[in-house]
Amino acid sequence: MEHFDQIINSDGLTLVDFYATWCGPCQTMHPILAQLKADWGERIRIIKLDVDKNQPTATRFRIQSVPTLMLFRKGEVLWRQSGALMLADLKQQLSKFE
């Protein structure tokens, strides 16, 4: 598996879902992110990062609540939001960066 920094430093869009297994809103985001990937295909890469298993990375990005979504391109944070989103709202936010 690629290293986290290699993934977020890639040329394409990478959406990182910082989540926790015990988090209800995080669980509601799973099918939304799956649908986003199905709709957008190769235009976006989506990775999930369990904050409990990856505390150094969560601390590095100052994750204080879950779910937190962060959009990266070439290592730069393009967008960040905490809390669950509806698919249409998520697409609207992300489409600004295509």
Distance between the termini: 25 Å
The CATH superfamily is identified as Glutaredoxin
Q: Quickly count the helices.
A: 4
Structural class: alpha+beta
Give the strand content: 25-35%
Tell me the Rg in angstroms: 12 Å
Largest sheet: 4 strands, mixed
CATH top-level class:
Alpha Beta
Enumerate the strands of the largest sheet in spatial order, edge to edge or round the barrel. 2-1-3-4
Which residue ranges are poorly predicted, with pLDDT under 50 across at least 5 consecutive positions? none
Average pLDDT figure = 95
- How many structural domains can be distinguished in the coordinates? 1
Count every beta strand, where a strand is a DSSP E run of 2 or more residues.
4
| Known CATH architecture | 3-Layer(aba) Sandwich
Helix-strand pattern: HEHEHEEH
- Percent in helix: 25-40%
Shape verdict: globular
Indicate the CATH topology. Answer: Glutaredoxin
What's the helix and strand layout?
Blueprint: H1 4-8, E1 13-19, H2 24-40, E2 44-50, H3 55-60, E3 68-73, E4 76-82, H4 87-94
Parallel strand pairs: 1-2
Antiparallel strand pairs: 1-3, 3-4
Description:
- This protein is an alpha+beta fold and 98 residues long.
- It has a single domain, classed as Glutaredoxin.
- Helix content is 37%, strand content 28%.
- The protein is built from four helices and four strands, in the order H-E-H-E-H-E-E-H.
- Strand 3 (68-73) and strand 4 (76-82) form a beta hairpin.
- The longest helix has 17 residues, at 24-40.
- It is globular.
- The mean pLDDT is 95.
